[in-house]
């Protein structure tokens, strides 16, 4: 099968969507399928064309990280998408901004179009009156629609009553994300890992505000993995709260470092204000970390009482109480082992690839 993906961001970009598309594409290639990806030149110095582990990647013009930039990139990528679509058996748009160029590809080739709606960007814009007519049209384009969480699926179906959207959580490559030798030395106290980029929607501020409350009950230390525009403000907040000696800002780290960094912790916290599947939570669980996460979006579908806990998003007191309760219960290694078993049973990348191939095959069969 010749499969064409369109995705605005792709590795070496770092993020849940990027990881999802990369690992899905890699799994499809490993099964003998041809996968091509049209994406953006969103990072300086990346080649316009390259092969990444059997995936053929094409990068087109990208003006800015903004809704205007997404639209401009989508339009600019139409010629390349249409050209590649001539040989495609199936086209898959990854996120709402990819639907327009993918639909242009379908018009050129007649190949079935699948679209997956990811990320909080979709949820935010679905609440805005000016965006709703455009999103309504976009969710009606695909021959088959997927969403990375039940919440996103519900919102998509509310936009265009009568359409069907399958909720299919993102997966994780459990052969890569697994317990390995810790990258950081043991600090002698429980270590909390917060694998979040430092943007307001990821709620890291509320973890910083919760940390003094946690420290009143339990001696811990924390590491924040990720960078972003909030970094200076969050570092200043940690100083003001007197907890800067217990929290380390590690900044952006290479994807290859993540298993070692996650394996250096005892518990992961996902404090986001909005969240889709939360690939970060799945990656942590695959590395045998229990997870305490926000009670919004995808995490409630992933995190059970046996492997973690949930708290009200944006509430430092609730976050602190959930972490303290979980730490005081003990047996973090045992709960971490259960977390990995849960990932393997429900969210491994192999299972995700299986379902995608079922959908693709069915569409091609119906097409005749």
Written description of the protein model:
- The chain has 368 residues and is an alpha/beta fold.
- The chain has 2 domains: 2-171 and 348-367, Glycogen Phosphorylase B (Rossmann fold, 3-Layer(aba) Sandwich); 191-346, Glycogen Phosphorylase B (Rossmann fold).
- The protein is 43% helix and 18% strand.
- The protein is built from 15 helices and 14 strands.
- It has helices at residues 16-30, 67-76, 78-85, 99-109, 119-126, 132-140, 150-159, 204-217, 231-240, 258-262, 279-286, 299-302, 316-329, 332-346, 349-367; strands at residues 2-6, 34-40, 49-52, 55-60, 90-94, 113-117, 144-147, 165-167, 191-194, 221-225, 247-251, 267-270, 291-294, 308-311.
- The protein has an 8-stranded mixed sheet with strand order 3-4-2-1-5-6-7-8, with helices on both faces.
- Strand 10, helix 9 and strand 11 (247-251) form a beta-alpha-beta unit.
- Helix 3 (78-85) runs parallel beside helix 4 (99-109), helix 5 (119-126) packs parallel to helix 7 and helix 8 (204-217) packs across helix 13 (316-329).
- The chain is globular and about 65 Å long.
- The mean pLDDT is 93.
């Amino acid at each position: 099968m010749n499969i064409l993906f369109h995705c605005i961001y792709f590795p070496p970009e770092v993020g849940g969507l990027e990881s999802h598309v990369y690992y899905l594409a890699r799994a499809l290639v490993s099964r003998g399928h041809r996968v091509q990806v049209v994406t953006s030149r969103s990072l300086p110095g990346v080649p316009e064309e390259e092969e990444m582990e059997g995936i053929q990647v094409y990068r087109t013009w990208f003006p800015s990280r903004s809704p205007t930039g997404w639209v401009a990139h989508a339009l600019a990528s139409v010629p390349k998408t249409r050209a590649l679509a001539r040989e495609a058996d199936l086209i898959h748009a990854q996120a709402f901004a990819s639907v327009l160029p993918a639909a242009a590809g379908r018009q050129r080739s007649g190949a079935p179009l699948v679209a997956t709606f990811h990320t909080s960007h979709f949820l935010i814009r679905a609440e805005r009156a000016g965006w709703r007519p455009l999103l309504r049209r976009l969710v009606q384009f695909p021959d088959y629609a997927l969403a990375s969480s039940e919440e996103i699926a519900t919102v998509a179906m509310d936009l265009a009553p009568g359409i069907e959207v399958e909720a299919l959580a993102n997966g994780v490559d459990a052969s890569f994300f697994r317990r390995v030798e810790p990258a950081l030395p043991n600090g002698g106290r429980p270590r909390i890992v917060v694998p979040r980029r430092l943007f307001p929607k990821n709620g890291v501020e509320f973890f910083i505000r919760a940390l003094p409350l946690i420290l009143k009950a339990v001696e811990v230390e924390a590491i924040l993995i990720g960078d972003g525009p909030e970094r200076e403000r969050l570092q200043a907040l940690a100083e003001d709260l007197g907890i800067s000696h217990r929290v380390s800002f590690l900044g952006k780290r290479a994807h290859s470092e993540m298993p070692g960094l996650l394996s250096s912790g005892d518990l992961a916290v996902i404090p986001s204000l909005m969240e889709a599947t939360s690939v970060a939570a799945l990656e942590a669980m695959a590395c045998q970390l229990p997870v305490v996460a926000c009670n919004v979006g995808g995490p409630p579908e992933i995190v059970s009482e046996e492997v973690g806990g949930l708290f009200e998003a944006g509430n430092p007191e609730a976050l602190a109480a959930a972490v303290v309760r979980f730490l005081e219960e003990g047996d973090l290694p045992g709960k971490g082992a259960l977390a990995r078993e849960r990932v393997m049973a429900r969210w491994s990348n192999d299972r995700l690839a299986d379902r995608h191939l079922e959908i693709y095959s069915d569409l091609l069969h119906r097409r005749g």
